Amino acid sequence: MEDFSRREFLQKTAVGAAAVSIAANQSGARQAQPAVQPPPTKQLGYAIVGIGRLSIDSILPALTTTKSSRLTALVSGHPDKAQHFAQLYGVPEKNIYNYQNFDRIASNPDVDVVYVVLPNSMHPEYTIRAAQAGKHVLCEKPMCTSVADAQFMIEACRKAGKQLMVAYRLHYEKYTIEAIERARTKIGKIGMFDAEMTFVIGDPTQWRLDRTLAGGGCMMDIGIYCLNGARYIIGEEPVSVFAQSWSYDPAKFKEGVEQNISFVLKFPSGAVANCFASYGAAGMNRYRAAGPGGWVEMDPSFTAKANLILRYTEDGRVVTAPASTVDQFETEIDAFSDAILQGIPNPSPGEEGLRDTRIQMACYESAFTGKVVSLITN
Amino acid sequence: MEDFSRREFLQKTAVGAAAVSIAANQSGARQAQPAVQPPPTKQLGYAIVGIGRLSIDSILPALTTTKSSRLTALVSGHPDKAQHFAQLYGVPEKNIYNYQNFDRIASNPDVDVVYVVLPNSMHPEYTIRAAQAGKHVLCEKPMCTSVADAQFMIEACRKAGKQLMVAYRLHYEKYTIEAIERARTKIGKIGMFDAEMTFVIGDPTQWRLDRTLAGGGCMMDIGIYCLNGARYIIGEEPVSVFAQSWSYDPAKFKEGVEQNISFVLKFPSGAVANCFASYGAAGMNRYRAAGPGGWVEMDPSFTAKANLILRYTEDGRVVTAPASTVDQFETEIDAFSDAILQGIPNPSPGEEGLRDTRIQMACYESAFTGKVVSLITN
Amino acid sequence: MEDFSRREFLQKTAVGAAAVSIAANQSGARQAQPAVQPPPTKQLGYAIVGIGRLSIDSILPALTTTKSSRLTALVSGHPDKAQHFAQLYGVPEKNIYNYQNFDRIASNPDVDVVYVVLPNSMHPEYTIRAAQAGKHVLCEKPMCTSVADAQFMIEACRKAGKQLMVAYRLHYEKYTIEAIERARTKIGKIGMFDAEMTFVIGDPTQWRLDRTLAGGGCMMDIGIYCLNGARYIIGEEPVSVFAQSWSYDPAKFKEGVEQNISFVLKFPSGAVANCFASYGAAGMNRYRAAGPGGWVEMDPSFTAKANLILRYTEDGRVVTAPASTVDQFETEIDAFSDAILQGIPNPSPGEEGLRDTRIQMACYESAFTGKVVSLITN
Amino acid sequence: MEDFSRREFLQKTAVGAAAVSIAANQSGARQAQPAVQPPPTKQLGYAIVGIGRLSIDSILPALTTTKSSRLTALVSGHPDKAQHFAQLYGVPEKNIYNYQNFDRIASNPDVDVVYVVLPNSMHPEYTIRAAQAGKHVLCEKPMCTSVADAQFMIEACRKAGKQLMVAYRLHYEKYTIEAIERARTKIGKIGMFDAEMTFVIGDPTQWRLDRTLAGGGCMMDIGIYCLNGARYIIGEEPVSVFAQSWSYDPAKFKEGVEQNISFVLKFPSGAVANCFASYGAAGMNRYRAAGPGGWVEMDPSFTAKANLILRYTEDGRVVTAPASTVDQFETEIDAFSDAILQGIPNPSPGEEGLRDTRIQMACYESAFTGKVVSLITN
Predict the structure, then answer these.
(1) What is the extent of the structural domain holding D213?
(2) Residue of B29, B187, B284, B313 with fewest CB within 10 Å of its CB?
(3) For chain B, what is the domain count?
(4) D141 is annotated as an active-site residue
(5) For the whole prediction, is pTM greater than 0.90?
(6) B221 and B317 housed in the same domain
């Protein structure tokens, strides 16, 4: 229902008063009511590259409620789809691009940021083309599928003088941030961290099961949640990893596309993270960090839809925070815009993505060799 | 990430292949990919009357994903607000109305349905004006604040040959429907139903605390959830009610605007519903129905945001369904459009609203007299 | 495993050291290790009257761990049963009584307290006989089945100069006590209290379904939990009650033995308690009190087995205390003994039982007349 | 309350009828009422060796409700303690032994089984002495602290022609058994198993922190739950293990007594178990097994107190079984007695303990060398 004050009510019913018997004190005074906050003086314009489920379900809707960001362009290989969503969200015809004419975006002043929402192995190309077109880049995670690509991407943005942010939306999620804070202040020495991210993958023809597009199997796409979560919550860089990967269905999971992976990270302080990702286990996504002062847990922890639940111990009791109703993409996108507008570095730059990529590659090495892989660099 | 097949990937990277070293098998074949379902041949156009929190947070966003319904007009007393949301959701300038010129909507072919999202006591006026303008009406609940108004509203729509639906969104919510089904098939004779809907109300100047606008206190605005839930789940019409209402803060809760109400409904089969609504108790919304075969519960049960949780017993164990992620307004609005398009009655017509209004009035009578009030009519 | 210090270990292995190769530093010094706390200087002796499920499953075991109480006598109509449990719990042959020779207990110095664990309507006889035999009395709840009986019981104990305590074990249960404390300090004005206690009753020949023995139906045996809980948590005496009772199966639930009862209590502060008891709904036992500062809940709340769970809100989050592992009977029995030993009144004397009995009778009156019954006395 | 039939009631009140006005139909007929099941024709007699917390809190009480087992002797180094509990549980003076005269138990026909409840490294000595005394042996877990000891224990019992059972009480726990069944029938290929067992250890002088008595740190005492759980739920023998152990407090956790351990087991089918045990993290005990068909979880999973909770997915919903109220020790002890009485092997013999001991030792090897240790034997 509309947020009415009594005076507004009286104004509104002034005309219709005869229609039904509502007692109304007629009032002639009319005032402009600034009931909607004026938009910020500056909203950055976003071009979304790739109109798949993530864009349709989450990113485009989020851009109707962002504060310092708004949708201004769409980039897609499907003209119909682009047309449909341009109309629904008020994107002008001229701001629709395809993969061929994408580079022309350089001359479009409506676009400040390019958000790359493509299969993993396409991230480098579009990040680099966007940077070369003079745009800031928000790149979905995993950042890419090799350490070299990550370095190229960072370098391209650096050269262009543009910001690069990897879309680690959980870095901007209030419960995850609180979990980290609690881990540091209440738990004491974290002994254990464990995390799982799993689902049973469907359609065998999807890009996630294509090594060329995905860069691997479940480690790339969902294992990264456990990995990044472990580093983020523990607040240290791991010194070694031991990983084991396997598949039960070789017809569906081709060479280099693991169905399951278990990996164990060792941290300098002593903490160990036991992680598990799978395309073959029923949907789970959760983590828990525990130490002498208790534990903190999120379950679900990694989904984009806004029902993350934070639980933790306090004085031996379990506290459950209400399911989050915050739109994670709105928060993430505005955080990037705000960093750009304020001219300060964003909190999850390319270097953060590079660190995960490097460890993902080390997991593959460990799984291949059967040996513990050191992550210490000189 | 976009839902790519391998072929699409190859097409898309064809142009950008030089930019970064991604192995790409160039393919010249290009095909239109109907990846977005074509919209239904007919989408009904909706005019939203009242742009308050409910419209902004829930109804306008829902209309971007409805199948047989779309937003085509806005009616508001705030030109700025109307302008802002018209732009964001692509409503043409000409389809913005205010409360004075609202009746001109009669001649606008873009509008099939008027959705009344105003304070309770304004529902009759705008429902009747909309019907007289030849539009179907979706009216927020409570339908109105007196039995006579409900009857006028029903009559006006009947005369106009237009459908009237009361926006009982839970009648269209999958878990609520399942709860009813379970209550009927698994629980056996329902002995007990209990329900609570409470929150601590803030701003003392809001319309909910103005008897002229709200028609009463918490019974009108949130007690209706417990009441409608009891009737809906038990599947019978109550034969008597005993209610007690009271307030702790007479400065905030004026005469006729109860802060708290407890009401007990007796049903023909014997079942009793214990209900409680409050503007003075911390946020709760839940119900449970129990009988020899177990119980079924929803907690939260009444909120519009999509995290309703269904729990029930089965073989002595408790089954918890995953938190709902369905948009309740999308479902409700499309259900109305579908009924209109198919020329069949909608499931929650004015008569359903009238029944609740009548019992709400009986609650007030019981609370006033201190006696049990019969609901049996001859 | 035994709580060993290293020294003890060495002592113990001194002899067996040759048997297996455990390095052991032989030590000749042997010391009395007061590892078990010496029993308190005084433990009161208890005679249990009635060896049914409650005694067998809960009360007899509890008396092996009580601090200021111990089992010294058994009273039963079944000699075999009495024999069996006397042997298992070390009760001497001479301290076994039956219902005929029970009064001889007067001359038995081993017995300080008689714990009456019989069907409801037998409580008065055995309470009075016990008091006349010069023993303190712990009487199971409900105290009795009429106001007059309650008064006789109180009077008999008063005349004998002996304490009478009604076995409201939840008055001694830590989470219930915390719930009360929270209700008073954190919730603010309690608006709503609701409670349910239900189970599907089995054997139709049991005494609970015999009006002569039980004094009524579910109101007597389990409704009392909701009733006492409401008074205890809210901390006031109700001013009126409205009750409705009914049965679905007249063959099983004879006249005067209600299967279901709903009752609504009104309290002086304004608070309302919605309560429900049933022999025909699947097992539930829970309550919740809510006010502006949040809510406190126990679910399960009333069972004797030690898994009560306390939940409450704090800063908008839900705190769950670990399931209680405290033996409720142990706590209750020792609380009575301690009161006697210290010569102070016990916290749940006959007067407390009388209050509940009076309200139980008023519930029956309301259910019979269909009217609200005042509980105000002059 | 005693389980009364109406006739019993009448009998009982016959004598006391004059005392209070209870209508009673006098009945002269008296019948022996076999209301307690006659004990089984044969109950095996148990000697408990070691009267520490586990014995006091769990094992002695359990022996008052066991069906085919009863307490007949106590073995302790503390005469006072032995005296106290002998009296409380009706153990005759002559059946109290100390560690010196323990071997005389050979000639005591009251004792069929010796239950060894001592620090880990004392298990071999007392198991072997008991077997040599001609008694069956129930030995607490971990069975012992070296593979050689386990073999000696098995051999000693074999030579004596007596059964040896390791007290894996969860092998006899209904929810654990159901979890296994569900894992095999519903989950499909188990991908992931994870388990944690942790608590913050207190008193630094306790035997658990003494390498000589405990045989190691948390791996021995609580890691065994995760290890045995993994093998038991997955139903296979692991082929390799990778373990990492560490301590934060070297003053408290001496050389060879790890505070924390993480170990990862690989199984022939591909499944991986991530396990974590700690004396330095707040109390957790849980496990989950997941595969394409869903997951099954217990949390808490390992505690002796009877509140284990089983949860699992079914059709995408989570089913929660009511907290177990079964006494795990009662079940375990009777299972051993029944096996002996029926002359069939018990389900958790010495060989089962040996398997865990061997893997525990491999964990230590892996943690020491930093390498994966193969568990494959030829």
Answers:
(1) 170-327+346-374
(2) B29
(3) 3
(4) yes
(5) no
(6) yes
